[in-house]
Each structure stands twice: as structure tokens, then as C-alpha cells.
Amino acid sequence: MAATNYHKPLEEERVYHVYNQGNNREKIFLNDENKRYFKEKFEYYMSPFVTIICMCLMDNHFHYLIRVKTWDEMKANIGQFRGLTRFIARMGLMQNRTIVSMVVSEMFRRFFMAYAKAFNNQNDRTGSLFRKNFRRKEITTLEYMRNIILYIHSNPQKHGYKQDFRSYPWSTYNEWFEHDDVRTSLGFDIYTIFGEKSNYEYMHLIKVGSYDINQIE
User: What does CATH list as the number for 1-140?
Assistant: First the structure.
């Protein structure tokens, strides 16, 4: 069996499970304020370029499910980030799909650097905070997407953070449960993926803790 390529380019209009952990499995969050700051920075740096479908922040790792926006969706946001226009200009006449991949990778780089710098300064720490090269896996089917959402939301219970994952504050489980159309920009919502709200809740409950990231395809 061929090895999984965890570092493929992030291409426009495709959906990816993005995740990483602390260097040497060290904690990347020491308290709720760290998680809040990480979430805010992710949204600042990444939401102009990707749609956040779901997420979960754990003490030493994180999971995001994202959809990469199109070049047309991104263009209006380029100017708000210093040096990004010059970064794109240096690419010359590359195809838009290549530009999109490079821009998204560059914004991830800026995001990780910004968070790591703040975390290190706060904790009188030096050196790499994250494992080198965050991982990403493309989501190619609706079933695969459903399984990844269940896996991400069940993480707090699977890893013993909470007896009931539904009460964990640093995931999007309750955001999905409380809103009918949280992802209308993607062309699908909770009903499209899970059939109906009751099935969304039911599938989370019967699957909680049973997923291994290496077994989800």
C-alpha cells in the first residue's frame, strides 16, 4: 500500500482535514486563554482564504476541517496582509490554482509563526513549538467528511479530557447542533451531511471515542 502524502498542495475548492501537534508532543496550549488566542489568530490569518467547517483544540494538538476558497474569493482580502501582494507578484504568470496553494501555505506559515512567537514570549520559551510541516488529508467523499467531523468532535472524550465531549468548549460540536445552516457557503449543511439534526446528534453519540485517525478513509 502506498504511503499517504500528508503534505499535498492545498488546492482551491477542495476540503482538507488539517492537524498538527506540539514538537515532541509538548503542549501547545497551557490554558484557555492560549486556546482563545489560537482560535482568534487562526480566524484572522486563515478565514479570508479558507472556510472553517469544524475544529477542536486539545492541549498538545489541534484539528481543523477546512475548505480552500477560490482565487476570486481570496483576491479582495490580499491587501489586508502586509507583503502578500509582493509575495504573489513574484509568482509571475503561474496558474491560479498554483497561486492559491502557495498563498494558503504562506498564510499557514504566518499563522503558526505568530502563535508560536506569542506563546514562547509568554512562557519564556525558545525553539520550535509545532511539529515540522503540519499534516493535511483531502476529503473526497461525503461519507469521509462525516467520519472526520465525528472524529474531530469526539476527540475530547476519546483522549479523556471530558466524560462527555458535548460539554467541551473548544470544539464546534455545539455550533453545528445549534444552527441549521452553519456552512451554507459550502453548498451543504448539517442536513446534507447527516440527514437531520437528530441523526447528527445520534451518530456522534454512537461513534464517540471509536475512531482512530489512521483508520479513517
Answer: 3.30.70.1290
Task: Please list, in sequence order, all residues whose beta carbon lies within 8 angstroms of the beta carbon of residue 169, skipping any fewer than 6 positions away.
Answer: 32
C-alpha cell at 51: 472556510
Lookup: cell for 129: 513549538
C-beta of residue 190 within 8 angstroms of C-beta of residue 176 = yes
Q: ∠164-165-168 over CA atoms, to 5°?
A: 110
CB atoms within 10 A of CB 159: 15
Cell 520550535 belongs to which residue? 128
SS3 for 53? strand
Each domain of the chain, given as residue ranges in start order, spans 1-140, 142-217
**Residues 1-45: tens digit of each pLDDT:** 446 778 889 999 999 999 999 999 999 999 999 999 999 999 999
Given a contact cutoff of 8 angstroms between Cβ atoms, the answer to whether 178 and 104 are in contact is: no
> In whole angstroms, what is the distance from residue 106 CA to residue 100 CA?
10
Rounded to 10°, the helix 96-122/32-46 angle is 160
pLDDT recorded at residue 196: 81
All residue ranges of the chain with pLDDT < 70 are: 1-3, 93, 177-188, 208-217
Order of strands across the sheet with 135-139?
Answer: 50-57, 61-68, 15-21, 135-139
> Which residue matches cell numbers 504573489?
88
